[in-house]
Automatic annotation (TrEMBL):
InterPro entries: Alpha-catenin/vinculin-like_sf, Alpha_catenin, CTNNAL1, Vinculin/catenin. GO terms for molecular function: actin filament binding; cadherin binding. It comes from the Eukaryota. The gene is Ctnnal1. Residues 1-20 are annotated as: Disordered. GO terms for cellular component: cytoplasm. The keyword Cytoplasm applies. This is Alpha-catulin. Its main location: cytoplasm. SUPFAM superfamilies: alpha-catenin/vinculin-like. One of its GO terms (biological process) is cell adhesion. Belongs to the vinculin/alpha-catenin family.
Amino acid sequence: MATSPCSSSGVSSSSSSGLGADAGLEIRTRSVEQTLVPLGLQQITTLINHKDKPKRSDKTLQAIQRVGQAVNLAVERFVTVGEAIANENHELKEEMSVACIEARRAGETIAQLTDVASLDHPESDSHITIFTDKTGVVKAARLLLSSVTKVLVLADRIVIKQIITSRNKVLATMEQLEKVSSFQEFVQIFSQFGNEMVEFAHLTGDRQNDLKDEKKKARMAASRAVLEKCTMMLLTASKTCLRHPDCESARINKDGVFHRMRLALEQVIEIVTDSRPNGENEMAPISIYSGIKEFKNKVEGLRENLYFLSKENLSTMLEVILEHTEDFTDSAYTSHEHREHILELSKQAKMELEQLVSVWMQAQNQKTKDLMEDLEVAILKTCQCMNELKREVHSAATSLAADLLKYHTDHMVLKALKITGVEGNLEAVAEYTCKLSEQKEQLVEMCRLLRHVSGTEPLEITCIHAEDTFQVTGPQIISAAETLALHPSSKIAKENLEVFCEAWESQLSDMSLLLREINDVFEGRRGEKRVYLSLPRPGKHNANLKALKPVKLDTEEQAKIAKLGLELHLLTSDVDSETEKWEDQENEIVQHGQGMSSMAYSMYLFTRGEGLLKTTQDLFHQAEIFATEGTKLASALHALSNQVHDDDKPLLLLEAEKLTSMCKQLQITAKASAQGKSATFTKVDACILKTRNVMTLLCQLLPLCCKLLRKNKAGNGYLKPAPPWKEDRIQTGTNPCTPERREDTFSIKSLENHITNMTFLDNK
């Protein structure tokens, strides 16, 4: 897929004469934004715009010089990283090297021109400075901005290329999986597929966290959620097809999964490259909320300007809104009361607009005080009517959703399908599939109506994703149930139906959360959602806790946590580097080490306000699981001690005991109660600090174990070359317990367990 560097990267450049960070850049990712900050572009702008005063104090001269030196130092660090990236990516080396040279030259020029602190009378000296050559500083600043932009564009292009390459590998392996005809071949290829999905999950997860555009972030999250659920479906659907190769419903079931995964993979690429197939423009669906918001803005704009739009434009906007209200009035699931109110308000809105247009046209011809007062009244009445319409459709959609979710919470139809399928009762299965189809239509309609009142673009996208999920999963459950009814003794067919039913139940559960968020937006409570490093609140792991008001940590506390987090990040890179040196990636020690690194990385993301650990309670839960994984690693070390020579055994046992002790301490800390801001901060600090200490020990343990295995030739832990720079951040570790990995590895660990326990010849 061909994409321009600027359109596909986290940075877009454009010609401009300005010097601010926003003058020539459209920053699309947080990493790019954070990279630009230390380069002092804002400081350069301030420097250039300084007022030429006849007298300059020593303090002013020293400040100017410090700015120049700081910019040059930041540029030098930036360029060093750029050159390292260039050396790892030969296809971009020449372009990157040129941009780095230009950036370094610009930084040095700025440092020279601001070297004024030692000059008593800089303008009379032969030394050229910012005071004698302000144009030179402007040129250097523009060169710096241009070259930095180019480096960032090229670096971001590498990330995008990694994601595209990873996607292509996944697609190629999927094609192989579709064609396999034996279980043995399937297991071998699916193992490779699992590893490729892990890599793709990490790359896209990092990109999702990096995106600034909340709409794109929501689309990426939706696509990744599809891939997560479909990976398990692909496993069981393929197993069922292999076990029952002549079963048409099993084939339909499997084909549906592959098709949906391909669509999700394609959407991810569209998001990261910021492009559409065949150059199509993305057509965002219009919701009633967004339509009313835009309409009201135009109406209220008449107070400032009577001539900025035509009456035809305003009438057209209202017509579009009222057309969308037909989704409610035409729906079989809208109550009679709501339908009547919506029709009444629609009629009233037309009348209020007619009155507004009449007064507006008069005011354009004769701007008298009375007419302007009449116009104000007409504006207020029109906006009030639209507010009432908005409130009515919100009530209609949310009350329907609440009723449906409550009604379907017992999953009676799914339970009946499982029972009748195992009984081989085709007639009963057909009856319940009809009921499931009716339920699907109700839920799809619910999602469509909720989209109109969601209030934000990310929530609109979530509604669309939910609608697609119900639309697709319903028929897949039906085909899986039909397969089981045809082969009632098949353990694999039963397992397959369970997986699809779980996906349905999971989506229903997600809808309850979505409904709560939509109500939060409507009632103005949205602001509390993204408070990180907060006091404990009700969360996924502590549903019974009382809700507490979120309180942010102060600057000093945040700085301390951020420093610990950075240390943790560096240690995860070290551990990943050590585990990648093991040839046997299935070794138990490697598996535990990768899992611990994975969890430590999610804790690092927490310190940045990113990732899936949203509250301190999530962090404490993660620390408990991390400690448990460490204890399992200690057990593996004890097992290894039985394989090594007597001379090496004491050292290994000593390290194992040390690890066990540290993990117990971490568990005690994570489980201890903490009330109040100060106590919570102390507990967060202690958990991250003790996790860091465990990771430090892990960095020493992994090479020691590898060395002992090699020395004793008792295992397969032989060394292999470390991968190049671009692969450093791709972790292959998985752990089914950690929330971060449930998202970022698509539950690959549980899939591996499925493969291990796979029954190749199901004769039951």
